[in-house]
Amino acid sequence: MSQWLLPENVEDFLPRQAKQLEIYRRQLLDLYAKNGYELVMPSLLEYADSLNAFGKDLDLDTFKVVDQLSGRMMGVSSDLTTQTSRIDSQLMKESNLNKLCYAGPVLRTKTALTKSRELYQVGIEYFGNSDIAADIEVQTILINSLKLLNINNITLDINHLDVCNQLILELALSEEDRTDVSEALIIKDKAALKKILNRYDKNVASKQLVELVDLYGDKDVLDQIVKLIPGNKEIKSTIDKLKSLYEVLIKTDIKISFDFSDIRGYQYHSGLIFSAYSSNYSTAIAQGGRYDNINNHYKNNRAATGFSMDLRFIINQMKV
Q1: In terms of Cα–Cα distance, which of 118, 115, 110, 29 is closest to 77?
Q2: Top-confidence range, 76-85, 137-146, 295-304
Q3: Against a cut of 0.85, is the pTM above it?
Q4: CATH number of the domain to which 224 belongs
Q5: Which of 93, 95, 164, 227 has the most neighbouring CB atoms within 10 Å?
């Protein structure tokens, strides 16, 4: 075997690609600084024990190595969001509100066939503000980030996990069935969903969860959710917030869609989540959302929201 071969789904960036990545990195960080976000540089390594707090899926994404000094298992950085959250916990004594940004490489143990296992993750995180205004700010900055990269025909796909989670909670599913239900919702497999839910004596909630699969599209979907789950004050409040979000973001000249069964993402996500797409890209170009209480070990009810994107993927799709 040649000593010059790289592992599968790993690649070098040649001069033109590297130059473009550096230009975009500087422009994006300047944009974030203008909006009050301070740059942080998370450690490349952290102990694997701390990764378990963020969910099994993130733990599986992380390369593990043994620390030769302590003998403990460590993880190579696979997600700068969670590491930035740890940094926020250290800064909380100085400020209840923290706006942080980052740009750096991360490694993943697995990825889609079209993507590298090495990402160059760029993003922002807004800590300490649970108001919808924080979500509006973060998503507006995301849209401006994509436009700065000359990405056009942007669609922002939005979901609020509270809608789906309330129905699942009412069903009192087993841990195994909850996982299977989540997978069926993501791929919109109504047959598999019905098969699982038939084992539970919760006809109304089961029917509502199955019908949730078909509720995706433009802002009219928001009123359909209220009709599907009538009399629920919490869901009505959630929908009202999504309507206010829509009214602001639609002015940025992008397309906005809602999909209440698209619950993909890391297990630490909660509440409002979103993915950005463009017709010129094969899959999502940025993802983000809320992950309130990720730091509840340090302080209860710590609000947090943000987004990240992979500059390597974006540049490869541009074929620079």
Answers
A1: 118
A2: 137-146
A3: yes
A4: 3.30.930.10
A5: 164
